[in-house]
Amino acid sequence: MTKDAVKKYTDELGFAGMILHYISRFMTKTENQVIGKLTMRFGRVKKNRLVFKNREMMDCTDNPEAFYEYLINSGYNREYEIIWMVSEKKKFRNRKIRNVKFVTAENKYGWSSPMAFYYGATADFFFYSHNSAGLNRYRCKGQKVVNLWHGCGYKDAEQGKKKQNIKPDFDYALVPGPVFVKTKSRLWNCEPERLLMMGYPRYDWMLHPSMSKTEILEKLFGWNGKKAVLWMPTFRKSDLGGCAESEIEFPCQLPAIQNIRELHEIDNYLREYEILLIIKKHPLQTGWEQNEQEFTNIRYVTETLLDEKQVKLYELIGISDGLLSDYSSVAVDYLLLDRPLGYVLADYDMYKEKRGFVFENPLEYMPGEKIYNACDIRRFMEYLTDGTDNYMQERAQSLKKMHNKTENYCKRLADYLQL
Fold first, then answer.
1. Residue 160 — pLDDT band, cuts 50, 70, 90?
2. How far is residue 374's CA from residue 265's CA, in Å, rounded to a whole number?
3. What is the CATH number of the domain that holds 392?
4. Do residues 111 and 33 touch, judged by C-beta distance below 8 A?
5. pLDDT confidence of 247, banded at 50, 70, 90?
6. Which of 12, 171, 183, 401 qualifies as a cystine partner to 358, CB 3.0-4.6 A?
7. Which helix (H) or strand (E) holds 289?
8. Same-domain status, 133 and 214
9. Residue 102: how many CB atoms within 10 A of its CB?
10. Beta-strand relationship, 227-231 and 322-325
């Protein structure tokens, strides 16, 4: 407990919340030591028990949700008991699904239910997307741990640290394709055999959205224009500790945009050609100040809006006509759609210095327009309007290196694991 930490939790949770946080941490560590160790010693793996966990406060989303959804729709819950470890259990109070339970893990005070450690130790398969949070630190013999992960992109996942000193806690981890077996085995300090080139469960949402383009855009924005382009910048400035790229900041929190006037000029161009530009706010990015009402053809979308409208992010990606991104994994994912890509590289040199890349020459793995300013963004929109596609062949070549394509990613994973 440090002075800075106490101040941080007091600011976030209030004085009483800060006290609860430290009490919860003590209780959780005690539960882990007592229940975890006892269960590992005297318990056994339950062969039909599956446990799912996202990052804290990101309950039932992303790759774990996509795979879980497939299992439920395919009737696996008739044979399997499925446990979700969630931060806000009350959100799932009305979800009554056969053989599915929700238990508290890492709530806003950092507390995890004793049952979380029991289920974590006795699961046949433990699936997670960001980290296991030590919930299965003490596990029964025979458990299989599958890291579903949350994307392979261009940025160095360890801020320049090329090798970890400890072995990872998973038996298998998913990567999209061949080139990432090399990058991830190095970063995670694990044998290449642990990395499954099967892509991510959420790809099924992207390739087969549950709604049409018209339905999704109408639901989110009331839009019925010609084209929709998605801009998904990775985060720079954030409150996340230990991230060197937090020193990078732009006037509108958008690389390549110098001021609000340029954004208005782009909006005017989009209006003329009936294009909607959807800017997805990264949940870790701070400093967003733009008033969406200032624009006619630029819209901002958040996780909250998507949740309210019941639209999956990867469904929105799947119906877009083009993508602007940068060093994010979404640019890799988008190759599966074989549509125009623009890489916004206004801070390329600075990002390389601050964060670093997993590839020696990342540009070789970027089959799309290179964008450095607002004029380049307008040119990308022009190409999209008139059908110019200068990178079709490069995308096809990159696809072979970066993906192992299939029609149903969830089914392939379930079959491989022999569920």
1. very low
2. 9
3. 3.40.50.12580
4. no
5. very low
6. 183
7. none
8. no
9. 21
10. parallel
